[in-house]
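Changelog note: in this version the structure field was regenerated for every chain. One regenerated record is shown below for reference.
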Amino acid sequence: MIRTQSRNGHTDVDVYNDKNPAQAPIQIPLDFTLDVEELQLPYKGKKAA
């Protein structure tokens, strides 16, 4: 699912960049290393009531 959403987002950005050559190109980072590391941290939220 993440792969599909990333591909779709990348395609959207490519189309936008192609249609707006006078603008600085938009770039989407597709490195999820920090996101995965954050998900592996212990949860420090409040306990459910």
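Spot check on this record: The radius of gyration is 17 Å. Residues 2-21+30-39 form one domain.
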